[in-house]
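User: Predict NADPH-dependent 2,4-dienoyl-CoA reductase, sulfur reductase's structure from this.
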Amino acid sequence: MSTLEHVVVVGGGAAAGNAVVSLREAGWDGHLTVLAAEPHPPYERPSLSKGVLVSGEDPDSGLVKPASFYRDHDVDLRTGAAALALDVGARTVSTRDGEVRYDSLLLATGAQPRRLSPDLFRPDPSDGAAVAYLRTSEDSLRIRAALEGGHRITVIGGGWIGLEVAAAARVHGCETTVLERGALPLAGVLGATVAQRFAEVHRAHGTDLRTGTVVDSVDAGTLGATVHLTDGSAIESDLVVVGIGAIPDVSLAEHARLTTSDGIVTNARLQTSAPDVYAAGDVASALHPTYRRHLRVEHWDNAVRQGRHAAANILGAHQDYTRTPFFYTDQHELSMEYVGLVGPGSVDDVVIRGDISSTTWSAFWMDHDTVVAAMHVNDWDTLEPIRDLVETRRRGVSRQRLADPGRSLDDVWL
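Assistant:
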């Protein structure tokens, strides 16, 4: 492509918003169009399961930039404008109002909540049924209204979203049940030792955390819902919140016959299989040079940084995206930051630093004598040393030294 006159960004989340900001901050003054399906300027979603639910935070606090930014920086922001089709040959994106032509395109379409099978509902739920999913600001406000009313809340799924919703529900005094299919919540990510600690904290705060449970059916009306389990028990609820994962929104990419596999497949520079089409955020399955495989990361930090990185590459930077995965969560007294990636089958090879039963400790996941991932709980000064330890991938770490909280993380090698 010899000239870059018009960039189109499809999406309304962190990746989309940060890409737009980066393009303008870089001094590029070409025509810039944002197609956001939701009726808001692009916004970041972490607060939807945290501050909005717990402390009544305004969802607008998560806006990447206020609406005035787009006006002041000559950005054609179109909210409520879902992209319906993509023609990579003609370089056009279709909306209900017509076609938009692009020279470069960023797909930041995000992910959608994985929904319960329709076969589980008896009868089929009507509009307004007492079953909720959490993805948008409207979803968060609906759930918050139930929490503030002190209602009975059942959460299906013991992942990050489900446990954050459960923690918020208990803050509001709600009778709260979490149904998790596995033996422990988060065990697939954190391993049994760390997952057990999260389970203990939720139970200590009064959550009825039921593991090894399977939902048989859901009776959902407008005034409440009953969840029936395969063991014959039933839970009456005013609202059921489903948090069983997310599915990348690849419909637009598939329509255009881009390469997809658990997301839109990109190279290390976030370029898709079509010329001048990039992908970023929850939808992007990007080749990571460090891990030598494609990764799709559903976390805020990745969306922000991939959006910025894609913008730089659209402007000709030609740089690989090498950021190490990072995420965080706040659940009762456990405020945690995590860096790295644990390989399959390695989640239980963990070294605990400090007293895991306390409110300040760290965990390090190992590949033989190398730290591949780490997290801290409420030990904020250790984030950068932890990140350095993970990113150096240096061999020869002494597990005994690593476990000693009195020893510097700069001095943990054999």
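The longest strand covers residues 370-377.
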